[in-house]
Amino acid sequence: MNKVEVLSPAGDFECLESAVKFRADAVFLAGTEFGMRTASANFDNQQLKKACDFAHSNKVKVHLTCNTLPRVDEIDRLPEFLEYAQDCGVDAFIIADVGVMELAKKYAPNVELHVSTQAGITNHLTANTLYNMGASRVVLARELSLPEIATIRAKTPKELEIETFVHGAMCVSFSGRCLISSYMTGRDANRGDCAQPCRWKYHLYEENREGQFFPVEETNQGTFLYNSRDLCMIEHIPQLVEAGISSLKIEGRAKSSYYVAVITNAYRNAVDEYYKNPKDFVLPQWIKEETEKISHREYNTGFYFGKEPGQVTDNGGYIRTYDVVAFCESSEGEVSNITQRNRFFLGDTLDVLPPSGKPFTTKCLKLVNKYGQEVESAPHAMEQLIMTTDAEIPKGSVIRRKRT
Fold first, then answer.
1. Which one, of 396, 355, 153, 358, lies nearest residue 273 by Cα?
2. Which of the listed residues 87, 232, 346, 368 has the most CB atoms within 10 Å of its CB?
3. Rounded (10°) CA dihedral 157, 305, 113, 118
4. Strands (DSSP E) along 150-306, which ranges?
5. What is the domain partition of the chain in residue ranges?
6. CATH 3.40.50.2300 is the classification of domain 5-174+228-300
7. Cβ(385)–Cβ(350) below 8 Å
8. SS3 helix, strand, coil % of the chain, rounded to 5?
């Protein structure tokens, strides 16, 4: 069987490096125009070429998002953008607009065409039509169940790949198409500039009692009417593969490199473990636990099992039980050169996520700053330190501390 792809987000170069280090098969990223995440740093022309070269040198594919719905004043800029992306070596465009799709075929004929979830593909008729128009992959609407996906797989050419989101934030919309942000803030979600008003806390007031607010409360914290749970399908790799999905897509181009590292690592290991013994696969507990070590909202399984995913009504924030405190730049035995990210202390028990293998814990026994002085804590972000621990920390490891 063809092994399912692990597809990771890369909002900037550091996130790209994390995805590659933790063994994604492919990454999706954006240029400075036409992508659906303006909050991310994204990649200018020079960075895009560098990103493609770096990814390809590590046998990782690059999918470029070109999935906004462009207005008439933007169309004239598209041919040059598409041509340059092809010259950089981009492997695929992720496109939502059929007009952009036609331009891509003309100006970048060597780049594969993937049709975005923004297109709202919910049936085999649409998938087949897009395949006949030149698409090599469709990113299905997130509102589909596993039986519906299996039916689409059975009624489309085997050459047409199927991609679905399996992890990350979901919004109160149909496949990402939402007007709440535009109405309330003037920031257009369909052009990558969502202000996320679905995460805000709301109150109600009666027409004749202006200024008197009546909370519609689940708790005394207020109510978050539109606040979707986060998607997590880490425990359902067999069902995803059996439905015929080609690529497992991790949401998160606005997320940190730490998020990319942890979640890429979790799905990479889950997929690899599945293919070792597909008939009797049991997800190792440590992999499931990894998905809890990043900042996230309450998890659920989206629409895959035919139920509405529901909203988080009692809080608008995240569950956060671990903080990333450092990255290991190099090591020799039990002495590591690290770059600090969040404050930690001598004597702390640290949780280490290596680029390969299971996470493990170790104790911080000694800290030395760049002046050669022993210190009691690491308080300065991006500070370079030498740390001695009671276990060897591999180069490239993410170092975390559990919140107390």
1. 358
2. 232
3. 140
4. 161-169, 204-205, 213-214, 230-232, 247-250, 299-300
5. 5-174+228-300, 322-402
6. no
7. no
8. 30, 25, 45
Query: Under the phi-then-psi rule, with left for phi > 0, alpha for psi from -120 to 50, and beta for the rest, what region is 37?
Result: beta
Burial class (CB in 10 A: 0-12, 13-18, 19+), 333: exposed
Is the pLDDT assigned to residue 369 strictly greater than 80?
A: yes
- Range list of H helices, 277-369: 285-290
Give me the amino acid identity at 126.
T
Q: To 5 degrees, how large is the angle CA 143–CA 147–CA 148?
A: 50
Take residue 255 and report the two structure tokens written for it.
Answer: 């997320």
Q: Which helix (H) or strand (E) holds 148?
A: helix 146-154
Residue with tokens 């690290």: 338
CA distance 337 to 132: 54
Q: Which two tokens stand for residue 295?
A: 């900042």
CB distance 115 to 130 below 8 Å: yes
Other C-beta atoms lying within 10 Å of the C-beta of residue 340: 23
Distance between start and end Cα atoms, the chain = 45
Confidence of residue 179 (pLDDT cuts 50, 70, 90): low
Residue 326's nearest CA partner among 275, 396, 277, 226 is 396
Tokens found for residue 129: 């039509």
Instruction: At 115, list the tokens.
Output: 């049709």
Class of domain 322-402: mainly beta
Question: Other C-beta atoms within 10 Å of 220: how many?
Answer: 7
Strands 360-368 and 335-340: unpaired
What's the pLDDT score for residue 202?
67
Q: How far apart, in whole angstroms, are the C-alpha atoms of residue 200 and residue 94?
A: 30
Residue 139, token pair as written in the block:
């990113």
Token readout for 185 is 């803030």
Question: Mean of the pLDDT values across residues 144-172?
Answer: 94
> 397 is written with which tokens?
């490891």
The span from the CA of 402 to the CA of 328, in Å, is 18
Residue in this structure with the two tokens 């507990």, named with its chain if needed: 285
> What element of type H or E holds 213?
strand 213-214
d(CA 214, CA 388): 56
Please say if the pLDDT value at position 386 is more than 90.
Answer: yes
Cα–Cα distance for residue pair 115/162, rounded to 1 Å:
10
CB atoms within 10 A of CB 275: 13
